[in-house]
Amino acid sequence: MKIVEISHVSRIYKVGDHEQKALDDVSLELENGKTIVILGPSGAGKSTLLNMLGGLDSPTSGTIKIKGKDISTLNADQLAEYRASGVGFIFQAYNLIPTLTVLENVALVKEIAKDPLSSHDMLREVGLGEHMYKFPVELSGGEQQRVSIARALTKNPDILLCDEPTGALDTETGVMVLKLLQSMAREHGKTTIIVTHNQNIAKMADVVVHVKNGKIKEVINNDKPLAVEEVEW
Amino acid sequence: MLFKKLIRTIGRYKAQFISMIIMVALGVGIFLGFNIEWKTLEVNVAKAFEDTGFADYRIVNELGFSEEDLQKVASIDGVDAASRFLSVNVPRKDDEDIVMLTVSENIAVSGFKVLEGTAYDPEDTEGLWISERYAKQNGLSVGDTYTMVYKNIEFSGPIRGLVKSGEYMICLVEKAQMMPDHEKNGFVYVSPAYIKAKIGMTFYPQIHVRSSLPKETMIERAEAALGKSYMIVDKELVTSYSEAHGEMTEGKTMAALLPVIFLAIAILTMITTMHRISISEKTQIGTLKSLGFKDRRILRHYAAYGLFISLCGTILGVAVGLGVGYFFVNPNSVMGDYLDMEHWELHMPLWSIAVVIAINVVLVLATLYSVASMMKGTAAEALQPYAPKAMRRMWIEKKKVWKNLSFATKWNVRDILRHKSRSFMTLFGIVSCMLILIASFGINDTLNSYIDDFFENSICYKTKIVLDTETAGDADVEALIDRYEADWTSSMGIQIGENTYAMEIYGLEHDYFRFVKNHGEHIDLPDDGVLICERIAKKEGLKVGDTFTVSVYGTTEKYELKVADIAKSIAESVMMSDTYAEKLGVQYRVTELFTNETEIEESPIISSTQTKQALLDTFKSFSELMNVMIVMLVFISVLLGIVVLYNLGIMSYAERYRELATLKVVGFKDRHISRILIDQNLWMTILGVLLGIPAGIGVLKILLVMLASDYELTLTISWLTYVIATALTFGVSFIVGVMVSRKNKNIDMVEALKVAE
User: Fold this and answer.
1) What distance in Å separates the CA atoms of residue B665 and residue A168, rounded to the nearest whole number?
2) Which of B108, B342, B411, B601 has the fewest Cβ atoms nearer than 10 Å?
3) Pair A99, B391: CB distance under 8 Å
4) Interchain CB contact of B418 with A (< 8 Å)
5) Is B670 within 8 Å of A56 when comparing Cβ atoms?
6) Residue B745 contacts A where some CB pair is shorter than 8 Å
7) Domains (range + CATH), chain B
8) ipTM, two decimals
9) Which one of A111, A112, A137 has the shortest CB-CB distance to B390?
């Protein structure tokens, strides 16, 4: 089943009088339950594509359908509802709220998600059962990213969107996070889209999308994705 | 190059810079404005008194002084000048206007200044010099004929000049009158020659003296010179002098109280905001340091921000101060109605300029301190972003109730406690706003209650008849009392120790005059004791049941009186029933009648009449003076609330931008995020209102003690005041909350989350 259908999407930013095309007539279809890695150099347009999928930004032209529903024409409130239940975000910088404890950071999405999961269970699943009442600043980078994964999954979304999820972590911690991400996504049956410039991460993907200069250069289906531990880091 | 940075940084933080400039302008403006008010009065009042030879002492003898008496007084060592003086209230012919017909034998003492027309001529037997204010209000010009009637004698003549006099700077014809009525009352000076020509004689019940001798010495020497003890009133007890100086004292008190709040807010806001800006600029400060800029150079650069704000604020503040000063004291203001004087040029105390300079220095130093704290350590350390204090669990988090709170509540509670200085400033702003509103409206309530006590509960007559005590015989007075079914009073000067007061004896059969305690509670005038006013009770340390001795002026009579109760009174007086007076054998002459009749026939024994309504009208002007002040204070406190809360709101918003963006990304709607921000504002407002109410009552108490101890005011705050003050404060908080939270719509989620933590 197709979960994402991107059709002729362009995104043009205006910087003063100058127009900059971040995405140029992009079309792409993605299957449900897969792990997709979007690869490309800096400024290729991969984050812009991820932002469109997450409802953080809207295309200048074209349509984006998630589970058959066009999100490119939604208003601000409808987009917020979509973000509240349809997608879970995992950022490079974790983006946790420093004045909320680990548990509260995760539980806060329960106030807006339609069908959330237990935040306690989720934190235990990501191995943070003992750190629930700590504040983010008391955790390591890897632990903070695990909180971020728990928060994203607690919403029980269809899609997990990960923007350079290991970018701020050392290799060892990064591998642990990816392992957790892969296992959690599989266990909960989520479509996972990871934006990265790290070629190695692509080896664990079912689909690898190469982006350059705002265009999709290549879509490779990987019949034998590797487990995280099988990848040479 | 750094200058360009300065300009661009100002642009970047324009909301904060503008609000800081407004706060400094308000602080400096209110400070200067209030000080300009009393200083302007001080200089111009002194000039008015000097220009017209305002007397330092008045020696009073109802039987009149001879020329010989005058010579004796004039020759006292230490007396600069003396003049026999007459002032009587006289009605205008065929009119209700009452003017004070005045003669000063030596016009250099208690005289006047001619603004228009011809100079005073002591030999002029026809001309009048009339008060300029009264003349203008009544369309009278130099050359017009003006006529008064006194004891059936017409005093008429061409107006020679329009004048002002320190003696009548506050032109009140009646002791219960609080504001002059320039349309109905004025003063007319004539020469001694004029009086002699009209009535064939002169009569002077006062000698006015210009002297710098202390009161005791003056009394001693006058008694020695005149060979008899007379009532000697120093200028402190003359309405024009005491009230004009009272206004200055009130101005000084206000200047010492209100501007302090505004200046404190301005300085604290500046310190808080500059600290926040310094935090935002920390990496830039580190960059400059790592590029090789010396600490001094960087400090100088950032000092320019503080200097820019304080200078802009001060320049605007001076303009605001002049505006506020002019608003309070100009010839067309309510103060201009109260004080009839020629000059109204604004003056500023010199030390206030020093204070303004000191404020600028403090503001720049506050900026430097914030920047210096960001520059500490090596260049590498300075380059590190500012690390806020780590969150710690609070005691409340261990309570069960905490677990049941929504995340938004927890977030807000922690944000308030995490940013203590910002929260304190927000609270301070709200408390100040509420405090000023409660105090301002409270003044109005207290005055209204005062007016109710005296005019609704105390004065029950329609007309007061003032008798001419020189001509009114006992039989004539009895006849008038019968004819108008009147109650009556007799007023005389008394002394308790060294202090001078009035003693009023009342004959009340119809209850046209009643005595009141706090909140209009009636007290009967007893037959075995006296009522004393609160001020006498306080000054003399008297309480109910005490006895005290009074001596009547101009006589050797002394009486032992018992305090039956303490009442409210406009004048400082001892109040006694006629029965008690007769028991004690007090000699008195009826001076005023109170009646419900409104049609009073002219009579040689009636000096003047006054209706209750006319008295009430003068209060309207007094209320206007207060209303002007209240409107201004309300405007300022609302502006203060908006600026402080908006500034802090923007700061809070900027600091939480990333967190707000995160909330938005995970799916919170704009209105939900707005509600979180507005909620925090509302909590602070509730706390601020709760603290602001007692603070406002406290300030009002201080104001009443400092400003209006002469009026025996009882602190009164109506429920409407609480409602309006609370509604205005919440309104301000809500509007600012909405203004800040509207910015949510513009949060750029992508950009906000790109930035590294």
Assistant:
1) 20
2) B601
3) yes
4) yes
5) no
6) yes
7) 1-54+239-245+268-387 (no CATH), 62-229 (no CATH), 463-597 (2.40.70)
8) 0.76
9) A137
